[in-house]
Amino acid sequence: MTYFTKALFLVAALGLAACNNPDRYGAGGADGMGAGAGSGGYGSGITTGGLGDPSDPRSQAYFQQTVGDRVFFAVDQSTLSDEARGTLSGQAQWLAANPGYALVMEGHADEQGTREYNIALGSRRANAARDYLVSQGVSPSRILRTVSYGKERPVEVCSSEACYAKNRRAVTVLSLGAGS
Amino acid sequence: MTLTRVMTPLCVLAAAAALALPVATATAQAAPLRIEITEGVIEPLPFAVPGFIAETGAAAEAAANITRLIAQDLSGTGLFREIPASAHIGRVTSFDAPIQYPDWRAINAQALVTGSVGVAGGGRLVVKFRLFDVFSGQQMGEGLQFVGTTANWRRMAHKVADAVYARITGETGYFDSRIVFVSESGPKNDRRKRLAVADYDGANQSYLTDSSTIVIAPRFSPQGDRIVFTSFGTGSARIHVMDTATGRERVLADAPGTTTFSPRFAPNGRTVVFSQEQGGNTDIYAMDIGGGTATRLTSAPSIETSPSYSPDGGQIAFESDRSGTPQIYVMPASGGEPRRISNGRGRYGTPVWSPRGDLIAFTKQLDGRFHIGVMRTDGSEERLLTASFLDEGPTWAPNGRVIMFTRETAGEGGEAGLFTVDITGRNAPRQVPVQGAASDPAWSPLLP
């Protein structure tokens, strides 16, 4: 004899209706992204001296803005696009002309993907960029290390593909006084 | 035969001898009061908790607070519904007075919790309670008494609620437990992250680290005495281990040229399984908490991360993109051929084995939305429990009935919070009221 009743309600998987948000994956890819936009913050770089005059081809500012200090990736990918290879080749030429600099290669992911997977994905991206620099003649000894920040250090904060595309990046962070 | 541990701040003693037991008849013509949690759907069980009797004026505030917290714990499960005091007909004026069952039947209270709070020497509180099955007119189990410091009043209330939950559901509770998580502050592109701990309900929050570096994904040891987490304090991701009693912290895995992250304890409390990255490739390793050489468990050019042991320690579930997209795999704990268990559409990650061993919780991304879900350990019977812009990182309550996870809102002002959902999916996710933004929760075992 039961003294409390059990009313039955069929519960559909919670809140699954109306979940589609096609914006999240958008067109994807790095195509069309300006590799040298360089207007984002540099929250995760190592501290260096003055950036110098961007019109001076030997300055870090020139490296960041004209050569382009970062390359971009498609969703979940670490493959370098033709545009990314072009940017990295330019970086290798600049590094050859400016032997006083060493670098740290940072890898980043957008906020899609789980936190730990994105740490691994950022490492892949940093290493893909690093390996390409080496293939273009940059001495491995000048690449101090690679570091992945996963999705912990976005430069763009909107939650749409336009921002995600800028966050899926590998950034070459210069440091003075090594590699001479 | 009482069990007393005077050295601990909180001790439990079965009070069968000390408390006058009401007459227990053996004529159980009524079915026992019981909730079967596994049933997909039930009506919450109505219960009454008349204010615990304050045995002295000094105990009045604690008695009121403890009563309120017991009701809050039970109602928060979605399995129970409190009948408010304003609807009560009967009054309980003394802890040992006979229960007037008709008064409680009249308001359809199925379960009745009575109690008292007294003050013992040294400013300690003595909390007693009894549970009654109103319609069969019987006490359920023996009365219990908890003795602890005034500062521990919340824990004593949680212990009462755990006992009530256990007697009615037949399963252990989860209220007297803690969570470790990442407390977040600052703008999205310069987020400050520090380790914090709190009670399961967000109370008693304190911090374990400062904001000088990024920390992510802390996890308790099975005994609750250690926390492993990933810190960027040395410049790259590195696994750290902290002793919860002393706050002492050290780097666990730091082989040169590697990044280490995604740590989780084995059930033995000695082994830590984790991801190690070298040259851009991430695989799964295990090592002893004391340090030493890491044992490699996977060897693939793909990403292998977020490992989680089965409760018997025999298997490890993990996330891998070897198929081209992140999916969930299971392998023997010593390594060996993994088998893929996730088979639906979408990308799967962060598998976490239930403490009961029956289910694996996971994060799923599908069509631009995130979900927390559960599946059987062979991948069958997948059920999604939540849906939002960004839900991730499930952690199990000690009894395997509730999952806590991170939910983050979209955009520039997006903020992360901790939410719980019960695995029936019956109740909408509820936010855990911790201070400030928070992410990456991990549940402790039930406290002793």
TrEMBL record, chain A:
Pfam families per the UniProt record, alphabetical: OmpA (PF00691)
InterPro entries for the chain: Bact_OuterMem_StrucFunc, OMP_bac, OmpA-like, OmpA-like_sf, Pal, Pal_lipo_C
PROSITE patterns: OMPA_2, PROKAR_LIPOPROTEIN
Signal peptide: 1-17
Compartmental location: Cell outer membrane
SUPFAM superfamilies documented for this protein: OmpA-like
Topology versus the membrane: Lipid-anchor
OmpA-like domain sequence ranges: 60-178
Keyword tags: Cell cycle, Cell division, Cell outer membrane, Lipoprotein, Membrane, Palmitate, Signal
PANTHER family (alphabetical): LIPOPROTEIN YIAD-RELATED, STATOR ELEMENT OF FLAGELLAR MOTOR COMPLEX
Family according to the record: Belongs to the Pal lipoprotein family.
Assembly and binders: The Tol-Pal system is composed of five core proteins: the inner membrane proteins TolA, TolQ and TolR, the periplasmic protein TolB and the outer membrane protein Pal. They form a network linking the inner and outer membranes and the peptidoglycan layer.
Described function: Part of the Tol-Pal system, which plays a role in outer membrane invagination during cell division and is important for maintaining outer membrane integrity.
HAMAP family, per the entry: Pal
Name assigned to this protein: Peptidoglycan-associated lipoprotein
This protein's encoding gene: pal
TrEMBL record, chain B:
Signal peptide: 1-30
Alphabetized InterPro entries for the sequence: 6-blade_b-propeller_TolB-like, Tol-Pal_TolB, TolB_N, WD40
Keywords assigned: Cell cycle, Cell division, Periplasm, Signal
UniProt main location, coarse: periplasm
Record localization: Periplasm
A Pfam family hit: PD40
Occurrences of domain TolB N-terminal (ranges): 33-140
Gene3D superfamilies: TolB, C-terminal domain, TolB, N-terminal domain
SUPFAM superfamilies registered for this protein in UniProt: TolB, N-terminal domain (SSF52964), Tricorn protease N-terminal domain (SSF69304)
Origin: domain of life: Bacteria
Subunit annotation: The Tol-Pal system is composed of five core proteins: the inner membrane proteins TolA, TolQ and TolR, the periplasmic protein TolB and the outer membrane protein Pal. They form a network linking the inner and outer membranes and the peptidoglycan layer.
Annotated family: Belongs to the TolB family.
Entry-linked PANTHER family: PROTEIN TOLB, PROTEIN TOLB HOMOLOG
Function: Part of the Tol-Pal system, which plays a role in outer membrane invagination during cell division and is important for maintaining outer membrane integrity.
UniProt-recorded name of the protein: Tol-Pal system protein TolB
Organism: Ruixingdingia sedimenti
